[in-house]
UniProtKB/TrEMBL annotation:
This is HNH endonuclease. It comes from the Bacteria. InterPro entries: HNH_nuc.
Length: 253
């Protein structure tokens, strides 16, 4: 703003009126002069040829110097951010681009007037003015607790399935979870998963990996989707999957 304009009486009167309407407080952060901030008048729009004091009061608002700079994208805005997506890095290997803290859960947030940044849980909640990140962490923690209980449950039992008898077959492990019968078939070359007699084709390298997959499929609803897609196909016949037949060297009918 040119000095000559600032000195005009019309502008001073208009500026004072806007500050009075907003009770001499920033309409964005709520701070006033007593908080040590400089108050300025922000124009929500500009019309060519119109003087700064020739606007409707509704077209202007009181902002502190910092919030005014944010609004015009001179500095990074602190509000109106939106969470785009989240990624679990597996360990504290990431860095929050706002506060510099180490993070495992990385949240990519976007702003219509600023480039996207990666932040941690606290900064994500703060900038988006939500609890999406912290709620996600709590939900993940509850999932992990249920998973741990499932993996270490004393309800797992092992038995020999005579129908699968072969030189490569070792034994079967079973448990009931949320009205689903989970069976993990252990062979000399890997572990195979079967839920409610629906056999999968994946060869898991460990018992733990197969259990985690079973838990995820049931908890996430993936198993139900799988069943709907495979309805009427051979996987529903109560017999080993093609992969398991190959592992056990069983000839299909």
């Amino acid at each position: 703003m040119k000095p000559s304009i600032c000195k005009k009486k019309e502008w001073e009167n208009f500026r004072t009126k806007i500050l009075e309407i907003d009770n001499f407080r920033c309409t964005k952060c709520g701070r006033g002069r007593e908080d040590g901030v400089v108050l300025q008048v922000h124009h929500k729009k500009y019309i060519r040829g119109r003087q700064l004091w020739q606007y409707d009061y509704d077209d202007c608002a009181t902002l502190c110097k910092g919030c005014h700079a944010e609004t015009h994208c001179i500095i990074m805005p602190k509000t109106n951010w939106v969470l785009a997506y989240h990624e679990d890095l597996g360990d504290l290997v990431g860095t929050c681009e706002l506060c510099g803290s180490s993070l495992r859960h990385a949240y990519f947030i976007e702003h219509e007037h600023w480039q996207g940044i990666i932040v941690g849980t606290y900064c994500c909640d703060n900038l988006t003015d939500t609890t999406l990140a912290s709620n996600h962490i709590e939900s993940q923690n509850r999932y992990n607790r249920r998973l741990k209980t499932f993996l270490n449950s004393s309800k797992w039992f092992s038995y020999n399935d005579r129908e699968l008898h072969s030189k490569n077959y070792i034994c079967s492990h079973s448990i009931d979870h949320k009205k689903h019968k989970v069976v993990i078939i252990e062979t000399t070359i890997g572990y195979f998963l079967r839920i409610n007699f629906v056999a999968g084709e994946t060869n898991f390298s460990s018992f733990e990996e197969a259990k985690e997959k079973a838990f995820f499929m049931i908890e996430s609803g993936t198993f139900r989707t799988y069943v709907e897609k495979k309805a009427g196909k051979d996987q529903f016949v109560r017999r080993p999957s093609n992969a398991l037949q190959s592992a056990l060297q069983i000839k299909s009918n």
